[in-house]
Amino acid sequence: MKREFFIFFVLALLGGCSFFANKPPIPPLPNLERIAPEKLTLDDLPSRGLKGSKVLVVQISDFQCPFCAKSHEAMEREIFPKYKDRVEFRFKQFPIGHHEWASRAAAVSLCAGEQGKFWEAADFFFSHQIEIEARTFGDFLDRLTREAKLEKAVLAACLEKGEADQKARRDFDESLAAGIQGVPTVLVNGWKLEGLLETGDIEKAIEAELSR
């Protein structure tokens, strides 16, 4: 039975890693796994909030996943406003193959980010997710260009180069290899929270890391 919000994959069991040399860290919530920082490229991801904060929250998401849209809405409405002055937030792409326009949206969002409008593009794709279809994607791209005040020629040139597609694919491949089993997934300093989460769980993880 397909679940739009969480696609499971058969993965090799990965060995445990720790940010601490002498003893394993205590998880902020019970039964969480931690992904070692070297498993994922994080430095070039779209970022906002307090740059260089000791707490890094990474959304791993797919613009066509319904539960990712719900997770993003909660992040925008509750988590980011509360912690934007204390925590850095980044976004890693996870465009699932059978989603018809997710990969295109991922590339567009990254190219929009070249014009400083990644988060506007992300909000646009999630908020219009139900309306967008593969055959109408171009119309919505034109609408995004107008609403976000993107330079159309610059956006087209970025997409033509193909680097955004490669980065989105890299994000997806890295996430799979690191043990991300599906989306939405949120990493809090590497601690992995999966599925459609209660905002309280994310807040507990953030507060635990802030207090260290």
Task: Summarize it.
The protein is α+β, with helices and mostly antiparallel strands and 212 residues long.
Sequence of secondary-structure elements = EEEHEHHHHHEEH
Q: How would you sum up the global shape?
A: globular
| Percentage of residues in helical conformation | 40-55%
Gyration radius, rounded: 17 Å
Class by alpha and beta content = alpha+beta
- Count the E strands: 6
Count of DSSP H/I helices: 7
Instruction: Estimate the mean pLDDT confidence.
Output: 89
Strand order of the largest sheet: 1-6-5-3-4-2
Strand fraction: 5-15%
Query: Residue ranges: pLDDT <50 for 5 or more in a row?
Result: 1-23
State the end-to-end distance: 41 Å
Largest sheet: 6 strands, mixed
Can you walk through the features of this model?
42% of the residues lie in helices and 12% in strands. It is of the alpha+beta class. The protein has a 6-stranded mixed β-sheet with strand order 1-6-5-3-4-2. Helix 2 (102-113) packs antiparallel against helix 3 (118-127) and helix 2 (102-113) packs across helix 6. The radius of gyration is 17 Å and the shape is globular. The termini are far apart. Residues 1-23 have low confidence and may be disordered.
